[in-house]
Design brief:
Elements: H1 10-35, H2 39-44, H3 48-71, H4 77-99, H5 106-134
Helix pairs in contact: 1-3, 1-4, 3-4, 4-5
Length: 136
């Protein structure tokens, strides 16, 4: 595959496809919980507000990833990978809360702050690098 046409950012495109698919799955979960009120699904997702937040966050991450991918501005791997991991991790934190809203374990807190940090660093650096590129 010719990596140049992706400006080295094919990981962003692949991750965007994954986050979009996960967002679509959660849309159906919302239909089955908030819309149809299926007891089995309501037992799995006890907080539909957090389920909605996870769904919207996956879609937002998809848009951000596609935007940076479409810019074709070459980003280094140390920026791309935190963007990719954070784009999956952040919405997943909401999905975990949708299943267990009272979770406050050390493992969850560690996961939450790790994914928040990765996302902030990745997208922050991508924004800085894109801004610098636009000023050339």
């Amino acid at each position: 595959m010719n990596e140049n046409k992706h400006a080295g950012n094919v990981i962003l495109l692949r991750t965007a496809c994954i986050t979009l698919l996960l967002g679509l799955v959660l849309a159906w979960c919302l239909v089955m919980t908030r819309g149809m009120k299926i007891p089995y699904m309501l037992n799995i997702f006890t907080s539909t507000d957090n389920l909605l937040s996870g769904h919207l966050d996956f879609l937002m991450m998809t848009m951000l990833l596609l935007g940076f991918y479409a810019s074709k501005i070459s980003l280094p791997k140390f920026v791309i990978w935190p963007m990719a991991l954070g784009s999956i991790g952040n919405p997943t934190a909401f999905v975990i809360l949708a299943m267990d809203p009272k979770i406050h374990s050390a493992g969850y807190i560690l996961f939450l702050y790790t994914t928040l940090s990765l996302t902030t660093f990745g997208f922050g650096m991508a924004a800085i690098k894109s801004l610098r590129y636009s000023l050339k």
